[in-house]
């Protein structure tokens, strides 16, 4: 197990670790007039994961606790990777630990909390041209994205769009070498490093990258980056 980019050579995950195929599903419903409920949608809820571990060390277990707390406790979620699936990770908070301790040996459970109950894959980057072309999102779920555009010519606007009529339009007198960054998840637009949300046109419609092929184009050659997302 690797957490926040680090593993501990004295800690091993037990073979009886169970990872559910998905986080619990939460159904969004309303009540039917004749009784029962109508399902309007569903979403993944948070995931709580108990990881069974064994600790063997040349040091007393009590002397490892300071090191373990520094490793595990953070203000933001960190990547949690299991070595049998190195190309997938969770974004997790440490939630607690219960150990049966002996002098230099302990066995127990480390609990993690994932506010987003997804597994994440590789971060991909693709260059988007001025005519529609396919971008393949290999994940199982829709992904947020970010774009980076370096203007090679002056322009009066910038458009990033899919073939479903969804688009981001920015109106501005862009200059050569201007650096434009857009972050879907944060609804953030930066020009030359400065937030510039006022550039966003009212007819813009934010969209996500759907699983499978997405047909995209931009008014200027643009690099789009996204992280594959899985159940």
UniProtKB/TrEMBL annotation:
Pfam families in UniProt: Sipho_tail, SPP1_Dit
| Listed transmembrane segments | none
> Residue limits of the Siphovirus-type tail component C-terminal domain?
139-230
Question: What InterPro entries would the database entry show?
Answer: Dit_BPSPP_N, Siphovirus-type_tail_C, Siphovirus-type_tail_N
Xref: Gene3D superfamilies: 2.40.30.200, 2.60.120.860
Domain (Siphovirus-type tail component RIFT-related) spans 9-113
- Write down what this protein is called: Phage tail family protein
Q: Which organism is it from?
A: Shouchella lehensis
**The organism's taxonomic lineage, starting at the top:** Bacteria, Bacillati, Bacillota, Bacilli, Bacillales
């Amino acid at each position: 197990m690797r957490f926040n980019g680090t593993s501990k050579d004295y800690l091993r995950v037990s073979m009886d670790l169970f990872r559910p195929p998905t986080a619990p599903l939460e159904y969004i419903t309303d009540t039917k007039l004749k009784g029962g409920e109508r399902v309007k949608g569903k979403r993944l809820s948070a995931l709580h994961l108990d990881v069974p571990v064994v600790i063997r060390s040349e040091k007393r277990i009590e002397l490892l606790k300071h090191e373990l707390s520094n490793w595990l406790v953070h203000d933001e979620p960190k990547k949690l990777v299991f070595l049998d699936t190195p190309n997938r990770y969770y974004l997790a908070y440490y939630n607690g630990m219960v150990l049966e301790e002996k002098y230099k040996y302990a066995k127990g459970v480390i609990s993690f909390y994932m506010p987003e109950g997804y597994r994440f894959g590789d971060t991909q980057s693709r260059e988007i041209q001025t005519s529609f072309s396919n971008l393949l999102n290999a994940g199982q779920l829709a992904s947020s994205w970010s774009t980076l555009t370096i203007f090679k010519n002056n322009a009066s606007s910038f458009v990033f769009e899919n073939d479903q009529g969804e688009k981001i339009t920015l109106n501005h007198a862009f200059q050569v070498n201007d650096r434009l960054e857009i972050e879907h998840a944060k609804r953030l637009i930066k020009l030359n490093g400065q937030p510039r949300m006022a550039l966003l046109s009212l007819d813009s419609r934010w969209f996500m990258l759907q699983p499978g092929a997405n047909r995209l184009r931009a008014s200027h050659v643009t690099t789009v980056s996204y992280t594959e997302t899985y159940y």
